[in-house]
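From the shared-data thread, chain only:
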Amino acid sequence: MQNVVFEHTEDALKPLLDAINIKSLPLSNAILISIGREGVILAHTLAQKLKIPMEFLFTQTIASPLNPECPIAVVSEDMEMLINENLVNAFDISPDYVYNEAQRQYEEVILPSLYQFKKGEGLESLKGKDVLLFDIGIETGLRMGVAIKTCMNMKAKSLCVIAPVMPKSVYDFLCEICDDVCCPYPLENYVSTSHYFPHLNMLDDEAFEEALNQTTTQKDT
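Structure, as tokens:
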């Protein structure tokens, strides 16, 4: 299990579907919400297989001022935030920096993306819906955590996290706060998402927009 590698992104589809089938998730009033641009095509394929609509939630990572590779918080398109308090305190990072950077990222990255790719429209109402939150790989859990908070604020009926791989510690934590977690490979010695998906590339704007348009078409039919 520790040596799992997906040479092709679509190789993760079958183990994901197997994990979902084992859980017998409620799908009659479900929606799949994808977070992370790099996994949106797999998310779209998964939604098609499950025969449920898909939406995309924009999020943006806030990096430490001391290390641009170290995420200390994440902000979502509804201005919900999740902060790694341990890192912020350990590096003595000012709360003002975190909140100001979140505001900047929201205004300079998230809002323009919403208008470019979704005509300025955020998530539709989630009240009473069974939400499946998908990410192609979960590392720190910050991005998934802010997505969970966003969906809870929008009165989702239930929340299930779906990902091909994640650290076992994050899996255990998500099992405590969500209704379900579907992950075929919760790994004790997690390396990185790029390790398990060595050929995973960030989609360019055209490919990303095409995936979102396919989702919109599917939802409207």
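Helices lie at 13-23, 40-50, 85-90, 95-118, 142-153, 168-177, 193-196, 205-220.
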